[in-house]
Amino acid sequence: MVMRDRNHPSIVIWGIGNEIPELETDRGAALGKQLVDQVRSLDKTRPLTLAFPGTTTKPNAEAVFSQLDITGYNYNILPTYQKDHEQLPSRMMLTTESWPAKAFPLWKVSQENPYVLGDLTWTAMDYLGESGIGAWQYGTPQQAKLAEGMAGMMAGTAMIDQLFTGMAEGKDPMADMGKNSSDPNAKAMMELFSHPYPWHAAVCGDLDLTGFRKPQSYYRDIIWNGGDRVYTTVRLPEPEGKKIIAIMWATYPTLPSWSWPGHEGKSLDVEVYSGAEKVQLFLNDKLIGEKPTSREQEFKAVFSVPYAPGTLRAVGLRGGRVVAENMLNTAGEPAKLKVTADRTALLANGEDLSFVTVEAVDAQGRTDQHAGQEVQFEISGPGVIAAVGNGDGQDADSYQGDQHKLYQGRALVVIRTSRHSGAVKLTVKSSGLSDGSVTINAKAAQAPAELQ
């Protein structure tokens, strides 16, 4: 791997391991040295790190990290970085994995401390496996309180140290906890952690399974890249007697929609992210309020807004001047299917792909983000449907086939060419909605010059 990639400019750091339990043992230093020597014998130009979620200054851990250039912190830099820096002032630090919901404090640590190089969040895009680790759920107030306690425990390193020491000794502490069903707290903790079938995706990404950005992605972008921009999203309302529980890799669920039928007159919490000095929020051109969105407010403002259909408009201000604007409009009943291909000209080489977005829109073309009906796909011409999907991590439908459900009003279809040129037409249908279609032109692939 090192020999293959050492000339790639995208490689900036080599990592010799991720969450290795042997680091907690006496033999960890010797194993680390073997890996360090091997990598450096192949490439002396990049610094080395290792990602670890436990205490990085304990003797066994320090014996490993002293051989490296950068100490990698998985989820544990916030409670430990100051003490670690005092103990080892020359140490360079990197957050090699972090909670998505900790975006601002991790940016702040990186900005204020030159020895903290940056933050790598888990994770960029949703993926299959580690089912539901980023899922939120409705629970009782008692469960919500227990979840807060769990989050506090996981913010430190003591539990991780205990877990990894057990793993290094060949034990399975998580399995033991699961077996301890007589302890009501242990049972409740496992229930909050577990997300059984049909969950099959992690759902902690800034991008969903189909590559579309979630609100947390826009927030992270504003934090790290600045700029006078505004983004508006709405917190999902909590049913009577229930609390939304979003811990660990989850972020509090929001939807960038101002269509909430059945909530007329009820207050909804609107989050506005902005790099401007302050924001104003208007509902149907009536001012709801004005709030600062500077560093002290973590580039975020929250407004309580009684729901009424129409237009929700957030305006970013700097020096009293409008510098950015973002609007959410209430969508009407879905009337048709909108079909958009990212590429309409492909090579007829049997491999080229077009990613086609399908949306349920109203008569004015506004997406109904609550739409979840099933749609059918028909294809004609020299192409095939390679895959179908949506952003729902618990939609158990196959990723291959000629039909799929919408999620938050949207689905994705991937078209692959054959080795024949011609027009490939995709038609999308759903009961009660007007059909949508797109045509993709597959052009003859030219043979490489050396083969001609």
Description:
The strands form 6 sheets. The chain has a 5-stranded parallel beta sheet with strand order 1-2-3-4-5. Strands 17-24-23-19-21 form a 5-stranded mixed beta sheet, with no helix packed on it. A 4-stranded antiparallel beta sheet has the order 9-7-10-13. The protein is globular, with a radius of gyration of 25 Å. 22% of the residues lie in helices and 33% in strands. Helix 2 (28-42) runs parallel beside helix 3 and helix 6 (141-155) packs across helix 9. The two termini are 34 Å apart. The chain folds into 3 domains: 2-119, TIM Barrel (Alpha-Beta Barrel), CATH 3.20.20.80; 215-329, Sandwich (Immunoglobulin-like), CATH 2.60.40.10; 336-444, Immunoglobulins (Immunoglobulin-like, Sandwich). It has 452 residues and is α+β, with helices and mostly antiparallel strands. The chain contains 10 helices and 24 strands. The chain has helices at residues 2-5, 28-42, 59-65, 77-87, 103-112, 141-155, 158-168, 173-179, 184-193, 215-225, and strands spanning 14-18, 48-52, 70-74, 92-97, 116-119, 137-139, 230-235, 243-245, 254-255, 267-274, 278-283, 286-292, 300-306, 311-318, 321-329, 336-341, 345-348, 353-361, 374-380, 383-389, 403-405, 410-417, 422-430, 433-444. Strand 2, helix 3 (59-65) and strand 3 (70-74) form a beta-alpha-beta unit. The model has no long low-confidence stretch (mean pLDDT 93).
List descriptors.
452 residues, alpha+beta, TIM Barrel, Immunoglobulin-like, 3 domains, five-stranded parallel beta sheet, five-stranded mixed beta sheet, 24 strands, 22% helix, 33% strand, globular
